[in-house]
Amino acid sequence: MAGILPAPLDSDAQKLPGQPGVRGVHPSDLGASAAIFLSQIVVLLLAGRLLGELLSRWGQPPVMGQLLAGIVLGPSVLGHLSPGAELALFPHLPQQQAMLAAVSQLGVLLLLLLTGMETDLSVMRGAGRAAVNVSLAGIALPFLCGVLAIELLPAPMLVRPHERLLLGLFIGTALAVSSVKIVAAVVRDLGFIRRTVGQIMLAAAIIDDAIGWILVSVLLGLARHGSIDIGGLMRSVLGTLAFLALSITVGRRLVFLVIRWTNDHFVSELPVITVILVIMGAMALATDAIGVQTVLGAFVAGILIGESPILTRHIEEQLRGLIVALFMPVFFGLAGLATDVASLGRPNMLLLTAGLIVVASVGKFSGAALGGRLAGLTGAESLAVGCGMNARGSTEVIIASIGLSMGLIDQSFFTAIVVMALVTTLAMPPMLRWALERLPMRPEEAARLEREALEARGFLSGVERLLLAADSSPSGQLASRLAGLLAGLRRIPATAMHFERAAPERAAAERTTAVIREAAESGGAEHGGAEPLDLTLRVEEPQPGAEAIRAENRKGYGLLLIGREAAAQGPKLLRAIAQSAAGFSGPFAVVVARREHRSGRMRAPLKILVPVSGTSISRRGAELAVALAQASRGSVTALHIAGRSAGRAPLHKRLGALFGRQDDVDDEPSRNPITEEIVQLARAYSVNVRSAVRNHREAETAILREIAAGRHDMLVMGVSPRPGDPLNFGDVATALLERAECSLVFLATEPS
Q: Which CATH number does the domain housing residue 546 bear?
């Protein structure tokens, strides 16, 4: 497997005593070597953290601080001020350098894995034509300029003059590709990550990264053959295309299945992290086997893992800490150690560095801005896109390290590329900040941002997996339909646990599955045409069932829907349902079918009533109601019971009460902030919404009257389980359970 790290600083380095390898090393030498290695890690981590923190406070990416830490500790600063101290800390011993290089080698693969996991393909799809134009134009212009610049360089400045074209293609790639991590970090820090221009820049950087790693892999495949030939080019290109095609088809589904199976069946600590690292290693070895660089395998593995429909946030948090805290500082610190700024003192190298900066900046800015204009962006938006895409950073450092290890460039050329990456990256934040401050917000953009802000405050956005516990009763069938609507709308995997009062019946369970899939297709249509539902069916023994749900609970479900019936209604029904809820630690919803839903008529749009009180619990109930209405193409009425203490009602409302109205009504949403929040939430998702305010001492009476007056077929209500046993949602919920004629959904959550 080809290395991707900087070459040793001293090609005439000393050898360790004994034969090559650990076996021939004296124990005392091995102990000293380990102590030096540990000292190197500690110093790189500390210096990288301090300089990264300093640059972060100045509005710069912290990864640049890690790179500067290596420059400070290497020959550029410490080696110039105190050569003895620099040599003692980083001795020019091949086996000593190999220990640090091994950590860095693994670190760059993990860095590419994390970059792939952060690559949100939905952002790329959403940005559409504009991102593609910005990326392609922003790559083509600096790439061509880079190739032309290398063709004009005198032969003495090249390591391999006979491979000038290959070097030109390589340098053109290094100048053309933006760093998605730097772009994302800066745009996020400036608060533009969800703005339209920010989305275009992020999507274009994602495309840049993908194209860049494919180009690097193909070029390195050619470099292995020693020259550019049609046969080698075809093998590299076809091998890369075959790998990408298999990855996004068979590989994508296989990665999903392996992650889910590991999560569901292993009980040891952090098993999913282990299997992710194995997937990364296997895909990196696969790309190496077909003659393509290992970094492409790691990057594509990260994309597939990041697209996994379960546990993505949990997985990313667990991996990010180790990668960011250990491997990234070591890799970028080692790249800084290989940078010798003193080499820029020679006039030809100084001119080369300045030329790379000018070619990279002008080419990238002009190409990206031109792509924005061709995509229909305004002049101000194109200016901002051009400024934002002119950031290299980590991507260019990795590419330069690969070129150095392959012998395509020498250390002076490597330093010039690193300085170019530093200058363009450090210049990007203030330029982008200046450009973004002059961008007005479009009305449709403001509406989208408002919807996303409402979404971010809700709990449904955090539900990555859905669990259903149902039997073949009408309540079970209704719960199955609601589960399908949510799974299709949110594009999340679901597990259906089918219970039977007698012996388990597979045919009844299959009917439950059919209901879920049919509803998912309907809910998915509201989300732009969803992928096939990822559904797992389990046929369980009859009561009690709590143990089966408890076993599923540890697998990472965000919501449990319960649709099971007992012979009795009211509190006795809740006691029966409590057996299922007892095994689940997260939010759960109790579904009770009434009226037409008991006769099997479940395909009609839902007409939902949701009581709201301004609390987080009632808001979660309203969020569920809006999601169900959106998926079923139904409507929502938000009802607030204000009580009599609010004061005497206006005359026209009191006269209305004399002519048959038993309570006071306010149907103007703008006058009530509690219902207005729900109205805004529903309208953000294009759901037909109405609000009403009732002044009544008894909440259950007002709710029952509204159900009858509005002919609602479902009541969705956020509740909080009361302490103690059996299950108790309070007096209002108990009264509604006994007296309401429409179907009921009680969403039980704890207050946030």
A: 3.40.50.12370
